[in-house]
Amino acid sequence: MSESAAVAEIEELTVEVGGRRIVDGVSLRVLPGRVTALVGASGSGKTTTGRALLGEFPSGARVTGFVRVDEALVGYVPQHPAAVLNPARRVGALLYDIARGRVRELPRRARRAAVREHVLNALAMAQLPDGSRLLRRFPHQLSGGQQQRVVLAQALLLGARVVVADEPTTGQDALTKRRVVDELAAVAARGIGVVLLSHDLETVRALAHEVLVMRDGRVVESGPTERVWLAPSHPWTRELLAEQPPLRGDTPATSNSYTVLRVRDLRARHRDVEVLHTPELVLRSGECLAVLGRSGSGKTTLARCMAGLHRGYEGEVLLDGVTLPPSLRDRTRAQLATVQYVFQDARASFDERRPVLDQVARTAVRLRGVPPREARGEAAEVLNSLGLADELAARSPARLSGGELQRAALARALLARPRVLVCDEITSGLDTVTRRGILDLLAGLLRDRDDLSLVLITHDLDTARLASRIAVLDAGEVVEQGSAEDILTAPTHPFTVSLTEKRLVEKRRDQIQPSSHA
Amino acid sequence: MRGRPKWLPSGRFALGAALVCVPLALALFGPLFAGEPGPRATSFTLGGGHWLGTDFVGRDVWRQVLFGGRPVVVVALTATALAYLVALPVGLISALTRRTWLEEVLMRPLDVLLAVPSLLMILLVASVFSPGAAGLALLVALVNIPDAARIVRAAAADVASRPAVEALRMQGESWWRLAVGHVGRSILRPLAADAGVRLTGVLYLVATAAFLGIGVAPDAADWAVMVDRNRTGLFVQPWAVVVPALLIVTLTMGCNLLFDALLSTGRDVATERYVVRRGVGVRDRVKEPRP
């Protein structure tokens, strides 16, 4: 490639906020038709670098360096695409507005048809071939994946030569991930430079041509994807790429285990729409049950019904044979303490004004009647055992990372001495290294506390491996249930089969190499 | 490039504070410096030992100004405080309850009140009861409760639906700690913004009511009454109208600026240095003249 071929370039970019360098001397070249990935743990400066291509910087930042963008058109697909789609306007209107700008030179009569053609083309390019059906819908009537593709279509309509995709596969199940990979590969195949910001290594490996590994704002290693994968030179890269060791909670002793929680004939509704129907689901003492499903399969609703956070249901949730009140406000303290819930978004589940330690300690005060002083001591002890030092625990939530907060959230639930711990997607927003840490922690808990049972809500097969039993949920129904080994090695239901098939992602690689490089 | 030092207040804050200070000091401390009333002079004269001339019945305008702020300011502040005293619990309870009927019982009557124009409401009630200053404060508070309660409820409902509140419930926290300790604290910012606007509105309402003769005697020392009664002599002796009118305007404007400035602190959005050049692309390079 010649020197001038890059469609966007960053040279020696340094971004400093409040005296801390969040990006430190990063250089980057985006080539047409190539996928450049920025990989790193959360907080490593990926997003700040990606947004620099748009000319966007955090408020109050000191910026030095050089950003050059060819023709200044860069598309951005954020992690939460709903945030950039006007909720009050239909998808069609959102796209037509942009397309109209591209047909100004046409005669007035021809414009309407041309606009429609542009829009449908862009939708097809964004992997929405049946896009015409979506035009009448509002953004909230689309799935997360469809929203993402609409945002991508907007960027394509603008004629963007560079697309920055921020964590496009984070929190997505295997099937959706595959579609995202297809969609970005198709975009790259049209000669658009794609910048992928991700900590999802599987996606990066399937898509990217070049990889830049970031840590604490610096690029520690960069090079062609295969080279970095096969021969990582920096120790941090090696740690990041290390194969996940097979996690396994101990299989419970079947003899003296009993049923802790039983879900019987549960029909949960959101307003009037039934989203979940579970005839029977049993959690035995000391076991780890994974509820596996795609987004929208009703798995979070199931977890929230158990925890008393969703009360719109018929049927029963029984704890030790006693029916639990549907709303946690009607549950006794003992019942609250027995069934604890850990939220997906740890940051949102903390009060940003109080130190983490104080908030964690309140569980023991309220649910077990421990005097405040001792509760703080106990909280510090539990936080320490989960790897949060006293100095970190005394901070406010804003000054902790996502992984640290998730540990604090676990500690908050554990202080109640629960027998059932419901974990809702607690690893989905985390990078590989942090995720492994949390999963190790859960495995340790299962080993050390005999009376603790885990319900692990997840879309991620690797996370589900921790469980001794797996229930697969699809469209609100339990389609398959059995021991983890059986489900993961010999799935019988077609949906489970499609979830466990992962090789397809790998296959894509061969199709997206630009022909000029062949 | 050096910005202002951190300890210095922002320009808007300083301006707001300065604007509020003058009428507020006059209103609160004015009566202490007023002194004994002198003999009455001729109506609407200038000079003759009267600093700002005389008013429609020949009283000293400066003395009236010193006395006239207290009713306006005190009634407005009391009315705003009273409105929130009712709106806060009503809004918080209806946002945090899961019983729809309770929310309906609390909020629907307020909606009815909201439908009646506030000034009309005040005029109607005043024509039946002829209230004094305390009555006026109550009335103004009453017409402000529906708005304030709705804003409290909306802000609180937003906070109440977040995971942080669910987490607190999961910990078995008491209603009081949940509602006041967490939700109440979280909505302080929007409430402060609302309070700033509301105080301005209340000032306007109180002044209008006084201008229309509600809750005050027709010759009372009151800035709003002064504007009304002295406007007949506007072209002979303008100070009797201009000074009280200006004081009311300064007070409302200052309040607004002050609250704006208070709300924007801690959200410093200035990007210090911006050395990034964009869009200097291939095309520009090609256009350069070649030797």
Describe this protein's structure.
The complex is a heterodimer of chains A (518) and B (291). Chain A is α/β, with parallel strands linked by helices and 518 residues long. Chain A has 2 domains: 3-242, Rossmann fold (3-Layer(aba) Sandwich); 259-350 and 417-504, P-loop containing nucleotide triphosphate hydrolases (Rossmann fold, 3-Layer(aba) Sandwich), CATH 3.40.50.300. In chain A, 36% of the residues lie in helices and 25% in strands. Chain A has 19 helices and 19 strands. Chain A has a 6-stranded mixed beta sheet, with helices on both faces. A 6-stranded mixed beta sheet of chain A has the order 15-16-17-12-18-19, with helices on both faces. Chain A has a 4-stranded antiparallel beta sheet with strand order 11-10-13-14, with helices on one face. The model of chain A is unreliable at 503-518 (pLDDT under 50). Chain B is an all-alpha fold and 291 residues long. Chain B has a single domain, classed as MetI-like (MetI-like fold), CATH 1.10.3720. The radius of gyration of chain B is 26 Å and the shape is elongated. The two termini of chain B are 39 Å apart. In chain B, 39% of the residues are buried. Mean pLDDT of chain B is 79; it is low at 266-291. Chain A binds chain B through residues 4, 13, 52, 55, 57, 59-72, 307, 309, 311, 327-329, 333, 336-337, 340-341, 343, 345, 348-351, 353, 362-363, 366-367, 409, 412-413, 416, and chain B through 98, 162-164, 166-174, 182, 185, 268-283, 285.
